[in-house]
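Hey, I was hoping to borrow your eyes for a little while. There's a protein on my desk that I can't quite get my head around. The fold is given in discrete form, as structure tokens running alongside the sequence. I'd be grateful if you could look everything over and explain what you see. Here's the protein in full, and shout if anything looks odd to you:
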Amino acid sequence: MRNFLSLILFLLSISTSIHYYLPGFEGPLPFALETGYVSVGESEDVELFYYFVKSERNPQKDPLLIWLTGGPGCSSICGLLFANGPLAFKGDVYNGTLPPLELTSFSWTKVANILYLESPAGSGYSYAKTPRAAETSDTVQIHQIDQFLRRWLVDHPEFISNPFYVGGDSYSGHIVPGVVQQISLGNEKGLTPFISIQGYVLGNPITNLNLESNYKVPFAHRMGLISDELFESLEKSCGGIHINLDPSNEKCLNDLQAYDNCISEIYVEQILLPNCPVDYVLGDIPQTLRNIKTGRRRELKEFSGNDTPSLPPPSCFTYRYFLSAIWANDENVRKALGVKMELGKWNRCNIQNIPYTFDIDNAVPYHVNNSRKGFRSLIYRQDFCFGDHDMMAPYSSTEVWIRSLNYSIVDDWRPWMMSSYQVAGYTRTYANKMTFATIKALLFQPHIFGGGHTAEYNPDQCSLMFKKWIDGEPL
């Protein structure tokens, strides 16, 4: 009787829908799409929403990848419709109807089955049933994602034996390595089903908030965003590269204010792009870190499809963000996807409204533990030649924490190729099965002016890189 009741509770904890059509896409979908909810948490009071796209190559044998968007609190639509999924918004001028979708040529689902998960509760269509359940953190996310995966695999036993990987970008750099460790520990403890974890992939990861914060000012100086004099003054007044956040240090605070003024009109995710309006505004990391340390919430502005502000022109890279809010808040879209009726409006990034505790300061120890267990890893940066244009997580900060692992190099720095005549980026492989790769922009790509913060800035190169790595081929 107890086993029967457990089975009933499990069946009630997961709901799925198979989709052959999607509002905004003309004709039947040429790939298999599933959406659904899985209940997790101590009292089954967190409902995590997901999109699942089967591999277009061989879903029975191809790897299964779970993709986590950063934020924390951003929707997995960022992966599905922007970064590495099979659909994207057309670049048409918005005419007041549902934004149309089109197929992409760069989808990672050509070679892998991908679960796009909305985590934590409050992200995308995921939600909590009680105020207490809405309270979350880095470590809570990690445990709930592991719980989600094991429940999802019980409902999808045909994928239990597939090689499994965890992927993400941006703030997911704090979460992905911990999820890999948690899955591994669960396997060792005998949790079922056994997950065939093989490794993980991270793009422009935020790994250590203090480290990334410290490299913002040198980045701004190197890219010519602040003067030599201000840089030298910041180094002197704020304690060098490790910025001193002492509120009694008036000179340091004045210099930081001057620094903030200099970068206030910069689009920090890709500094060469126009600073077009966005659906949310996340402050520069030094300011964000000061807010976190003083207990202040990040200052954000939100937009949803229920609002009617002036959209930026289609030439703006952020234009698609506004289209996503219009699409995701459409009643027919939500009904088609099986979104729960009690859910409120959808925001691409819902950071402001999630009671979140940042309880992992540094994800490097997770990388160390995962390396000791032999897991593969791919860490990639989107760069332009020898300069990086992502100010959210500067290139130099990634280099520093990778060097801190002190692993020997087995394949030293070299170019990897997009074609016989085109360098796609540069790569290096370490003895701990870690591959580090950079991706540079190709000049013939429209509206792309150098590597940015996520895969959506250079999708073709990212797709080729992922295919080679996931298939075990050298870049």
